[in-house]
Amino acid sequence: MEELYHIGFKKEHNARYALLPGDPGRVEAIARRFERGEPFARNREYTAYLCDCLGQQVIVMSTGMGGPSAAIAVEELHRTGVRNFLRVGTCGGMALDVKSGDIVIASAAIRMEGTSKEYVPVEFPAVAHIDITNALSAAADSLGLSRGKHVGIVHCKDSFYGQHEPARMPAGRELADKWDAWLKAGCLASEMESAALFIVAQVLGAKAGCVLNVVWNQERQARGLDDGPRPSHDNAIDTAVEAVKILIRTENY
Hints:
alpha/beta; Rossmann fold; five-stranded mixed barrel; 33% helix
């Protein structure tokens, strides 16, 4: 296998699991949670560490922002042998009970983005794999995070400013109407990579899941509700790392 063009490495590992933060600056912090984590590759937005976990190797690699970069990451990691993908990201809360510092485990995603539509028509749902979703939920419970844990549907979009400044966009009325629909349907939070992750993994026959740290909630802010201080990323990171351990133990049982 030749070195893959975007991620900058080939199958020089035995990892079947990958943790995928968006931010390259978060990769080292996640890698430090494992028994051993060392720099492995760096190219474009893709910074990768190779880690040891319960006798298996795990890759931690950033995907950058948005569906196109996330889809490339999953495609090329899959070509190197990775079969389980866990996004470790951030989100903005939408439901009023989703507060800053909580975690959201995405069981499915609204496909309001473009990348996944080049894989399958929009009627096909973007759903996380049940094994990884269950492992993430069990991991959060084991870490004492049940009170701030939410499991459900998230909103996945391409435009950050389309969400936050719809009034100045030519398509603003459509954006506002759809946002209102997602709220009424009980959508938990909004982010930018989950739909592409779920759809690409589905098409490849792989497994994917997603845990998100809530950084704020614009709906709470709009209503004058307290949303707490800006949190660290520790809860989402710890949940993802513990979920990988659960999955490896289950695989080896």
